[in-house]
Amino acid sequence: MTVSPPTTPARQDLIARFTDMLGPVGVITGETDTASYCTDWRNLYHGRALAVLRPASTEELSRLVQFCNEHDVPMVPQGGNTSMVGGATPDGSGREVVICLSRMNRIRNIDPNDLTMEIEAGVTLKAAQDAAREAGFMLPLSISSEGSAQIGGVLATNAGGNNTLRYGNARELVLGLEAVMPDGGVFHGLRRLRKDNTGYALRQLLIGSEGTLGFITTAILQLHPQPRAIEAALCAVDDAQAALKLLGLLRARDPALLQAFEFMSGTGMDMVIDLIPGTTLPLGERAPAYVLLELATPRPDADLREYAEDVLGDALEEGIITDAVIAESEGQRTGLWKLREEHAEAQRRAGASVKNDVSVPVTHVPELITRATVACEKLIPGIRPAPFGHMGDGNIHFNLVQPEGMAPDAFLARSHDIMNTVAAIVKELDGSFSAEHGVGQLKPYMMPSWRGGAELAAMRHIKAALDPKNLMNPGKVLPPVTPGT
């Protein structure tokens, strides 16, 4: 049974002070009203919050953070609450406040000469994409949760997504930042400069820090020209090695045209087709694996359709692919992407799953998939490996679904065994145990063995210097200090 935080004068006084600073609309209390802010998207973590606080400006946030710092109130930054690793969920103590910047949701400016967008942290990624498109430009960040994920959280986790292959992760698109630091001070870094060699790049320290070093409030993002032609194709392949050959062929022909290159296992695709209404496989028959690729160019005179037909025709002749379909309309293109984007939901419907967001050098992706599949099937007979993801940049979501007939709780009890089995192979292949989802509260235990020594020590020093009271998103990213770590 969940027990509510005690109603004490101290707690009531804190809530009264919060209300004075933010107004009644900026403060949410009560277990029922705060419940959705205290559970993560995957339903793995369930916490309690002293209150959910919603400042409407950087000035309000600055005063709020200064007050929390002075009164030792732990703070949990939260955007759209789409974290896959529990990075935005409070603990169970009822002492922490969740601070959500959803009221800070203005797109301040789009500059057509600089190709930049100045945007507040509470704007959803989808709204930012739409605003850029309406202005004739493209914000290339694209992730499955873009309809609810907010810019502040997207940057705090250095989101990657489908277009990283061409445009890079979130940090490659950020020119300037404004942020409220753990003591309430404001970092004024909203500069639209591509060249600025004036000391440490503090914005890059905040990007990817998962809210442990401060609150990102506003950003200046790099936009790109809107593509004038886009072609998407779904290809059937025999295995990941064939997919890698297809990637090599596309890069050899014209690497500038390739915008996305997504791998999907046959098992994962079967789950989508069987469990997600409205999805159909637009190929002659099901295959062991698939690639969804997208080509795009801003050039007005490019015959991208002919190019796509030629290169896929050659791939078919060479035996690299066994079948392919090119979208004939925007609706068909959306349908192809739906097959990719519904993988996580299909796996949820298929049963309990353990997610491994990992990356390896692109050349090692086939070996990762082969070895991890064998190792996990040996660990738990009947387990259903369903790897998919951004093969073009080496990031594979090596997800595993429970064996049919196995109790979900019993399967999830083996989560760390499964994660460690996959991680051991990733480590041997010079990869990372977290590619784009972050560390959150799910994976700090991995940090000493992967990022120990001088690297972890430097992270601890930075955290201690900026947040000496450990009030900013405590329990996330960095593991507790123990001898040897």
UniProtKB/TrEMBL annotation:
User: What cofactor does this protein call for?
Assistant: FAD
Q: Could you say which EC number(s) this protein's record lists?
A: 1.-.-.-
Q: Does the keyword Ligase apply?
A: no
Acyltransferase: present as a keyword of the record? no
Give the molecular function GO annotations. FAD binding; oxidoreductase activity
**EC top class, in one word?**
oxidoreductase
Q: Which InterPro entries does this entry report, sorted A to Z?
A: FAD-bd_oxidored_4_C, FAD-bd_PCMH, FAD-bd_PCMH-like_sf, FAD-bd_PCMH_sub1, FAD-bd_PCMH_sub2, FAD-linked_Oxase-like_C, FAD-oxidored/transferase_4, Oxid_FAD_bind_N
Q: Which GO terms describe its biological process?
A: respiratory electron transport chain
PROSITE patterns from the xrefs? FAD_PCMH
Its protein name is FAD-linked oxidoreductase
Membership in a protein family = Belongs to the FAD-binding oxidoreductase/transferase type 4 family.
Q: Give start and end of each FAD-binding PCMH-type domain.
A: 45-226
* Keywords from the UniProt entry: FAD, Flavoprotein, Oxidoreductase
